[in-house]
Write a structure and sequence with these properties.
The protein has helices at residues 21-24, 33-45, 61-70, 100-114, 133-145, 159-166, 189-196, 226-229, 235-256, 260-270, 299-312, and strands spanning 3-6, 11-14, 16-19, 50-52, 80-85, 87-90, 93-96, 119-124, 149-155, 173-175, 199-202, 275-279. It is of the alpha/beta class. The protein binds NADP nicotinamide-adenine-dinucleotide phosphate (NAP). The site of NADP nicotinamide-adenine-dinucleotide phosphate has 28 residues, from helix 1 and strand 12.
């Protein structure tokens, strides 16, 4: 599989990473633990060498499953673990909190759940606007000097926020949403990251399943699923997105003899993301991995893609519904 260096951290990984939000179960209609562990093993068998997770995914469950999967055999040494800090929860209520004491507690919890001594890439999940970025950056740098993390990243950050981090620490990566339907970072974060040698780990590369080609107009999502509230999956707008997927599927087959899922992931990589995160939770979902490699998009295909998007999606939506509240609750 294609590989890439993550910034100047010295870490290297395959350009497809496994995402584990769905494996955590919460907001994805529950999890099947045996399938989750089998998916992590299947990912490693297929050459994936970075697993992205977070404490918030299933309130610790995704990290526990990653830890359990890697504890079998000598798998830990074959992958980079990328986890996150900066989101806490009380009951079902999620809030941003990157204060030094909170982040320290989170780090110890993550190390325990992941059954490891060191986290390869530690990312701030969402910027905490009530804690100075410089303070969070300095706290993470302390963890790095203690040998508990190897590299530092951020997620869901503006270029100004990345700049504030970079004033204090070497920033290895940024993790923004990026897929054929959610392209906001092309105007700022993507060129900024390329200019400053910051790796881009693209999340929701399949637009939460829309770009797999498996969803139908009558596909129903449970009340507890993120897609139940995601505006792209509602009413007339959902049908427009599905029509765009049909167009992209036809193009993928005709031009490259691959499924639309492979076109979607190839596009993310060819646009300049370092790594595309693929949220799989059953082993067979990773079967099309071979179709992503060995070819590249050409200018004609890019023009056709843009024409399909322009034909069907008149008001492209960014995933702002994912954003946690900006202010900490009074606890
Ligand atoms: N930093 C952040 O704030 C942030 C936010 C979101 C995501 N992420 C990271 O990015 C990762 C990926 O993003 P994502 O989970 O939002 O979504 P995604 O990768 O765009 O889509 C995931 C969904 O696609 C479906 N899928 C995957 N492979 C499939 C296949 N071969 N056939 C049919 N369906 C398939 C699955 O849906 P079913 O479950 O219906 O099968 C899966 O849950 C996450 O797991 C997480 O690690 C980070």
């Amino acid at each position: 599989m294609e590989r890439i260096q993550l910034g100047s951290s010295g870490l290297e990984c395959a350009r497809i990473g496994l995402g584990t939000w769905a494996i955590g179960g919460r907001e994805w209609g529950g999890t099947d633990e045996a399938q989750a562990i089998a998916t992590i093993h299947a990912a490693i068998d297929r050459g994936i060498t970075l697993i992205d997770t977070a404490p918030i995914y299933g309130f610790g469950r995704a990290e526990q499953l990653v830890g359990a999967a890697l504890a079998q055999g000598r798998l830990r040494e074959r992958v980079l673990i990328a986890t996150k800090c900066g989101l806490s929860w009380q009951g079902e209520r999620v809030y941003r909190d990157s204060r030094p004491a909170t982040v320290r507690r989170e780090l110890e919890d993550s190390l325990r759940r992941l059954r490891t001594d060191v986290i390869d890439l530690y990312q701030v999940h969402w910027p905490d606007l009530q804690t100075p970025f410089e303070e969070t950056a300095a706290t993470l740098e302390t963890f790095r000097q203690e040998g508990k993390i190897r590299a530092i990243g951020v997620s869901n950050c503006s270029t100004a926020q990345m700049e504030a981090f970079r004033a204090v620490i070497p920033l290895t990566s940024v993790q923004p949403p990026y897929n054929l339907f959610e392209r906001a970072i092309e105007h700022d974060v993507l060129p900024y990251a390329s200019r400053h040698g910051v790796a881009v780990l693209a999340y929701s590369a399949l637009c939460r399943g829309l770009l797999t080609g498996r969803l139908r107009p009558d596909t129903r999502f449970g009340d507890d699923e993120v897609r139940h509230v995601d505006p792209k999956f509602q009413g007339e707008r959902y049908r427009h997105y599905l029509a765009a997927v049909d167009g992209l599927e036809a193009l993928a087959q005709r031009r490259f003899n691959v499924p639309v899922l492979a076109l979607a992931l190839r596009w993310v990589l060819d646009q300049g993301a370092s790594v595309a995160l693929w949220g799989a939770r059953r082993p067979e979902q990773l079967d099309p991995i071979g179709a992503i490699e060995g070819w590249q998009l050409d200018d004609e295909a890019r023009r056709e893609i843009d024409a399909i998007l322009a034909r069907h999606i008149h008001e492209p939506l960014q995933p702002s519904f994912l954003e946690p509240p900006r202010a900490r609750p009074l606890l």
